[in-house]
Design goal:
This protein is globular. It has helices at about 10-25, 40-45, 65-70, 90-95, 105-115, 115-125, 140-150, 175-190, 250-265, 295-305, 305-315, 395-405, 420-425, 430, 440-445; strands at about 5, 25-35, 45-50, 75-80, 100, 155-165, 165-170, 195-200, 205-215, 220-235, 235-240, 270-280, 280-290, 330-340, 340, 350, 350-355, 355-360, 365-370, 375, 385-390, 410. By secondary structure, the chain is α+β, with helices and mostly antiparallel strands. The strands form 6 sheets. An 8-stranded antiparallel beta sheet has the order 13-12-9-10-11-14-21-19, sandwiched between helices. The longest helix has 19 residues, at about 175-190. It is built from 15 helices and 22 strands. Strand 15 and strand 16 (about 350) form a beta hairpin. It has 3 domains: about 5-105, Rossmann fold, CATH 3.40.50.20; about 130-200, Dna Ligase, domain 1 (2-Layer Sandwich), CATH 3.30.1490; about 205-445, ATP-grasp fold, B domain (D-amino Acid Aminotransferase, Chain A, domain 1, 2-Layer Sandwich). The N and C termini lie far apart (about 50 Å).
Length: about 450
């Protein structure tokens, strides 16, 4: 096992990784931007190194600064968390070239699955269902128009290097497709430096279902159960739950085995998530996230596994301790993303000082956060400041416990999504499982 690792991230995921390090007796090195000097992960780490100003491009996304911090502190490995450099294959390759273990997949596997058009090809080669669409990236807009005519509207235009809802446009006719391709390309070039696009048939009322996997460096791959992430706005998830209310045991096995086949096809290692769209009794590959997910605690609550601990063990060369038959999820878990946003103003970011925070506690209630009373939320980063996770014996019990925990979550000084989640849990269509990925846009925006 490692003796010291660096955490190339901030916020609650950095705190979460520190917790796993403590469990395994590993020293944790934090990095921070100037504006994050008072953040909780800095206070909890064994060592903390400032890597630059608030701007992400000059701190958390600046590979030379992070590598310098790793070399100065003499770490053996780097955990990228999620976001920032977590899916940057060049960063993973740089770590490898300097004999620093990257706690995640190999740069080669990451590059394959990070190229969403290539990932689609690999899924097809693995026998995983995909939606009708491009065989690769589009060579021209004319090719996209011709393809859309063949598969029929509506279609969705996606950036090869997209993420976070950027580089995506939906087209219901040829005119909107032409505009959509131009907009998606420009957005992707600005965000990712890569304007390559591909097209798929667009499902109008799907559910978003994803499968968590763990893969060691000895060829063993496990699926740990699915999460339903259909409650989202502008392709950004707000609530996740497991198991999915639309997935039964037979379908779970099919999706899980498809996820395992895909991982073996690209020699994937460490934690990862394969995302699918589900509609009309069928599921289709969407993309793979080659990192730990924001919503990983949902799976931890139902399986009892510590996924970050497993990431560390896998990266250290250990074999998975279980077989697929050992993975038997129990109960129903939900995660509520607590964002510093104003739901009444179209979820506009709401940075500022937290006057008071008192998180709910109790059996089967968990809060992951990096903020505290008196902390000032900077305007420079993602607005998520906490995650509330609950587990009940079934979905109804999880909803009831979620209502109770949200009512006890005291957070003053900034607007948050807590009132939104309370309203959501009182919505009859949500409670009766009558919704799809359009639910928030159609009911709350």
């Amino acid at each position: 096992m490692f003796s010291r690792i660096l955490i190339a991230n901030r916020g609650e995921i950095a705190v979460r990784i520190i917790r796993a390090c403590r469990k395994l007796g590993i020293e944790a090195v934090a990095v921070y931007s100037e504006v994050d000097r008072d953040s909780l992960h800095v206070k909890l780490a064994d060592v903390a190194v400032c890597i630059g100003p608030a701007e992400s491009a000059r701190s958390y996304l600046h590979i030379p600064s992070i590598i310098s911090a790793a070399q100065i502190t003499d770490v053996e490995a780097i955990h990228p968390g999620f976001g920032f450099l977590s899916e940057n294959s060049h960063f993973a390759e740089t770590c490898q070239s300097l004999d620093i273990k990257f706690i995640g997949p190999t740069s080669k596997a990451m590059a394959k699955m990070g190229d969403k058009a290539m990932a689609r090809k690999i899924a097809q080669q693995s026998g995983v269902p995909v939606l009708p669409g491009s065989q690769g990236v589009l060579e021209s807009d004319d090719e996209g128009i011709k393809l859309a005519r063949n598969i029929g509207y509506p279609v969705i235009v996606k950036a090869r290097a997209g993420g976070g809802g950027r580089g995506i446009r939906i087209a219901h006719n040829e005119a909107s497709l032409k505009t959509g391709m131009q907009q998606a390309r420009a957005e992707a070039e600005a965000a990712f430096g890569d304007g390559a696009l591909y097209i798929e048939k667009f499902l109008e009322h799907p559910r978003h279902v994803e499968m968590q996997i763990l893969a060691d460096e000895h060829g063993n791959v496990l699926y740990l159960g699915e999460r339903d992430c259909s409650i989202q706005r502008r392709h950004q998830k707000l609530l996740e739950e497991s198991p999915s209310p639309v997935v039964d045991g037979r379908l779970r096995k099919q999706i899980g085995e498809a996820a395992v086949a895909l991982c073996k096809q690209c020699a994937y290692t460490n934690a990862g998530t394969i995302e699918f769209l589900y509609e009309g009794g069928k599921f289709y590959f969407m993309e793979m996230n080659t990192r730990i997910q924001v919503e990983h605690p949902v799976t931890e609550m139902t399986t009892g596994l510590d996924l970050v601990e497993e990431q560390l063990r896998i990266a250290a060369g250990e074999r998975l301790q279980w077989t697929q038959n050992d993975i038997v999820p129990q109960g129903h878990a939900m995660e509520f993303r607590i964002n510093a946003e104003d739901p009444d103003r179209n979820f506009a970011p709401f940075p500022g000082k937290i006057d008071i925070i008192a998180a709910p506690t109790g059996t089967d209630v968990r809060v992951d956060t990096f903020v505290y009373s008196g902390y000032r939320i900077p305007p420079n980063y993602d607005s998520m400041i906490a995650k509330l996770i609950v587990r009940g014996k079934n979905r109804a019990a999880a909803i009831q416990l979620g209502k109770q925990a949200l009512s006890q979550f005291l957070l003053e000084g900034v607007k948050t999504t807590i009132p939104f989640h309370r309203k959501l849990l009182g919505n009859n269509n949500f409670v009766s499982n009558n919704y799809d990925i359009n639910f928030i846009d159609e009911n709350f925006l």
